[in-house]
Amino acid sequence: MRGLKGKNVLITGASSGIGRAIAEQFAKEGANVSVNYHSSLDDAEETKQAMLESCKAIENCGSRKPVLVQADVSKEEDVTRLFDETISALGGLDILINNAGIQMEGPSHEIEISKVDKMMDVNLRGAYLCARRALQHFVENDVKGVIINNSSVHEVIPRPGYLAYTMSKGGMMNMTRTLALEYARRGIRVNAIGPGATVTPINDDWINDPEEREKIEEFIPMGRAGTPEEMAIVTAFLASDDAAYITGQTLFVDGGLTLYPGFREPIT
Ligand code: NAD
Fold first, then answer.
1. Whose alpha carbon is nearest atom 2 of ligand 1?
2. 37 has which bridge partners?
């Protein structure tokens, strides 16, 4: 893809799932990557190994020395350190991928408020703290940077039992659109991907249960869950110069989940 080679990229929550696949994709594109992880250095090391593997066949691969930085994106002091360490190690920043996210369920009238706060803090406040710090760097250094938020089909599809998750992703949609408008004249683009059901650790409860998985996949118009790699390539596209005229959009990568699958068969 055009315009990614040599770019400096920070990916939050990149020690597993979609974040790891995004790190590998950017490595293949020849970008320099900072891998943020929350708790497991071993998992972050696995991401690094996967990136080096992806880089093997590429001459002058940018990501031969990926940087690993521990930080909790919901904590402002951690985010400050994450960006300071990333910018100093990579020599700048061109692209932020807000990928870190958590999901907890519970009836809306019963769920502990601490769980609601946690989801909002990580998924929305954390993404904003990172976007804010990236924008400061872009503005101060006149960088025509890019921010990609990893949102969800649940920024538009309601999901009973997952209120805070849907609130955080709905908020992410308006954050994407508002920041895109606010910074468009500076040449800064802000977009999102909206994954559907994807095979990653966040979905361990149904991925490893054949009956549950069949039920979910049957509901998806294309009849299967997505892969982290399918999310990663669209993320890289949105960050690349091939998407130079796209801003403020969420690109759903969902096998048709946002097409109201319940209407597939005539209802009358
Ligand atoms: P995952 O659990 O593998 O990845 C989430 C990552 O976020 C983990 O690496 C985790 O360590 C990190 N993280 C959690 N709290 C953090 C914090 N406070 N600070 C920094 N990092 C933190 O699952 P995934 O599916 O790869 O999720 C990645 C993103 O994709 C999430 O934002 C999720 O909401 C979104 N998403 C996933 C699906 C899906 O079906 N898998 C669908 C739609 C959207």
1. 202
2. 70
